[in-house]
Amino acid sequence: MTITKDAITQQSLPRHVAIIMDGNGRWAQAKGKPRVFGHKKGVESVRNAVKFCRQLNIESLTLFAFSSENWRRPEQEVTTLMELFMFVLTNEVKKLDKNNVKLKVIGDISRFSEKLQKSVVKAEQMTENNTGLTLNVAANYGGQWDIAQAAKQLAKQVERGELCADDIDENALSQYISMNEQAPLDLLIRTGGDLRISNFLLWQAAYAELYFTETLWPDFNEQAFADAIACYVSRERRFGCTGEQIKELLAQS
Ligand code: IPE
Ligand code: IPE
Ligand code: MG
């Protein structure tokens, strides 16, 4: 499926896209190279994805860079991933800033080195007033962690006497869930062929369209991204309503 700019309206495009960038290791291994070679190549796909979202005026792009479970990987691989993260943060942030991109890191960064934590804060501060694409990088992120940290904040409010436990509902919890200030997640893409969420955006994905592709992350280029968007545009989102109700709503707008 291909996509042409004229055939789609901004309204039909997703406002918020998230990607589980999977398949770097297999991509490298297929070429007889060490896994880290795939991670390095994957950075190019990140650049392309950011550019693509900027061109389509997508509001938020959320990338799964390192999961809370990825610490279980061989020490050498974890170290390389951290170094790469540090390198990208320090070297790409100026370009992101120039392109009006707002960078946010989501996840429990307290487990990272002091140096890395400082770079994260600096990069976020440098770009915080930008009004173009918001790029969320999920690092040491887990969907279950996100829900637990939101619950903890509500519990603290109850402890301070600011909130009654009986008043806790979905709205109250969602206030503290990562990226609550941004557009709701519309499309969740996973590359690399596996059909699972791997503890990514559990709360936020409640009504997201899911798109799985066999393409390995280092091969995920503009065409592959356009195919995912075209697939999203062709789907009918009902949010629990019937198709007829949605059509009536559209006719009114
Ligand atoms: C995803 O690629 C990148 C990270 C988890 C950081 P993988 O490293 O999981 O690659 P595969 O799935 O082993 O091919
Ligand atoms: C998910 O990929 C995490 C990231 C892309 C950062 P994994 O390769 O870690 O997921 P599993 O282990 O196959 O579920
Ligand atoms: Mg993987």
Automatic annotation (TrEMBL):
Co-factor(s): Mg(2+)
Keyword Transferase in annotation: yes
Entry-linked InterPro entries: UPP_synth-like, UPP_synth-like_CS, UPP_synth-like_sf
Gene3D superfamilies xref list: Decaprenyl diphosphate synthase-like (3.40.1180.10)
Pfam families, per the entry: Prenyltransf (PF01255)
Catalytic residues (UniProt): D22, N70 (proton acceptor)
Keywords from the named record: Cell shape, Cell wall biogenesis/degradation, Magnesium, Metal-binding, Peptidoglycan synthesis, Transferase
GO molecular function: ditrans,polycis-undecaprenyl-diphosphate synthase [(2E,6E)-farnesyl-diphosphate specific] activity; magnesium ion binding
Protein's name in the database: Ditrans,polycis-undecaprenyl-diphosphate synthase ((2E,6E)-farnesyl-diphosphate specific)
The organism's taxonomic lineage, starting at the top: Bacteria, Pseudomonadati, Pseudomonadota, Gammaproteobacteria, Alteromonadales
Gene that this sequence comes from: uppS
